[in-house]
Amino acid sequence: MLNTLWFSFFIIAALSGLYHLVVLSDAEIFSRIVLSLFDMAKLSVELMLLLFGTLTLWLGFLRIAELAGLVDSLSRVLTPLFKRLMPGVPEGHPAVGLITLNFAANGLGLDNAATPIGLRAMRALQTLNPNPETATNAQILFLVMNASSLTLLPVTIFMYRAQQGAPDPTLVFLPILLATTASSLTGLLTVAFMQRLRLHDPVVLAWLGAVVVLLGGFMAILATLSSAAITALSSIMGNLTLFGIIIAFLLVGYWRKVAVYEAFVEGAKEGFAIARDLLPYLVAMLCAIGALRASGALDAALDVIRWAAQALALDTRFVDALPTAIVKPFSGSAARAMLIETMQHFGVDSFPALAAATIQGSTETTFYVLAVYFGAVGVQRTRHTVGCALAAELAGVIAAIAVCYWFFG
Q1: Quick one: what percent of the chain has pLDDT higher than 70?
Q2: Which residue in 385, 396, 305 sits closest to 140, CA to CA?
């Protein structure tokens, strides 16, 4: 799937370039395409330098949290819920701790770091699979929740915004929080419907009820604020939460006699290795999308969607954020590249860039996650995984666009 997507970007760019050269007599079209390749290759290296710092920083702090027992504590808190949502996983099984750590990495927005942890969790779940070629209910729920990707603190998106010169990188904190909650709840409810999970169980109801009450109360408070006040609140909460988590990890680690500096360095080494391995993928996707934009093909496709939106009497500002949404189910690296390109093209704090950033933080990459996670354990029959994951992804995109009109409209 990814090979076809990447190849098609260049073929479409080439055909569009020929159309501009032959039909529109645009003699400069291929020079612009080639120039975009060099510009995007340069941008990839600049982004990678910042990504090195971001991943090493947060995996270092996550390692402190792990050694301090915070992950185990969270696992114990979640065990009663996991017992009801994943009845096929025995209490105390190693998969529970790995799933918790994976959710923690996703919650911090460290999607690149969450993947290796998630693969370990999927292999642990596979040891409980009586039919290795068919996905179990627990594996499906785990994968769909990864695809919906509840992101509480999207630090990598903050990083991309900072690199592009955003005066306040955390401005999208609240929009992403609301959109990712919508996608995660949709994923959970669709899986629960397909698997006949007992959501009326008191423990499950307590968790879901708490989420609904907190989210509903929070949205009720936001409804009383002006757009400027909402924007300011998003900035304050984003920065306060970010630094508060760091201090909490350090205080608990120090209190529990963890050598916090050594633990940080140990985790940071893992982050350095992950970031280093991402550079070829980032170069490949950014260059392909740069060629697509420079050829005029991407703008032509968006013009068709914009025309349809105008025919329905809709505001069309969201259209320029759709490239991120369209490629997101297929490739995380392509979606990141689309987000970065949108920020460069329209401005980091433009409505399309803010909407694209919110879409990027609302969900994960359905087909990529499915291929990598199930491929790693040899699962071939995925049952209802794709339908549930795509439902969650669609809910996340719709919620992201709606929330951006609310916050930045």
Answers
A1: 90
A2: 385
